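It is worth pausing here to work through a concrete case rather than discussing structure prediction in the abstract. The textbook approach is simple: state the sequence, then state the predicted structure, then interpret. We follow exactly that order.
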Amino acid sequence: MKSLSPNDFHKCIAGLSSYINSLLLYEETSYIHNGFENAWQRFDWFTTNSLAYIEKIDPTVLGIDWHSEDAYKNSGIHNFLLMSNYYAADLFVSPERAKAVIDVSPQLPKDNFEQVLKHIDEKIKQTGQNIIFENIRVGIDKNFELPSIAQYVLSESSGYDDLFKVILQLKDSRKIVNIRNKIEDITSTTKGALKFQKDIDNLFAELSGDKRKPGIKFNLKIPVLCLQFTKEFSVGFFRRKQHLTFLKDLITARMESDKLSKDLKRIFLR
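Step two, the predicted structure:
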């Protein structure tokens, strides 16, 4: 990736982000075994890691002639979406067609976990707007180039070689599945949903240094917005609720000024 132009590099990172999301936000991820998957073979990283993990789907069940003139209409996107709908699964599409598919097809499952991620983004943007220092606001804005899950994976990776290992570890731990199920459970009632939203708001208050929340406090030295200083944290937060501790890590990775740029430089050396 070192020889790519900045524009091409950004496209590759966007593709990597979609790749991470498709592995982590769906129970299963597959690719269509119709010969066109050979377009991915030029990416050594994809071939080495993904083809051993991702299931292939035989497209003949739908009776599509993939080499016919009709198959090339709309860059083949219609057939891609037809397969995806039939198997109720996210499918890899060729890199050249990826943007067009994104424009016509949602990338995330429609559930409460997606709404939580959107809520986090809105809260972080609001936090950035309230900061008086322009350089820090710019740093936070730059962190929105990638969705939360993808940025979290990059922040957990020490380098290019262990990126896929981090993805698989997170996948195999079923942490995201468990958190999604937990959120669905606690937001199934009005009381549960309101309490959960309050938990997230309190979490933001803790991370942004809001001291108005009552409760027992203790000091903990953590990096916030790239500044090292001692913050006060409520003891009640550390009751080890998995969904809250995971969201805390997610929010921290997103809020830190220029965090995304630093992660990309560390992993891809650029």
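Step three, interpretation. DSSP finds twelve helices and five strands in the chain. The beta strands are 29-32, 55-57, 90-92, 217-224, 227-234.
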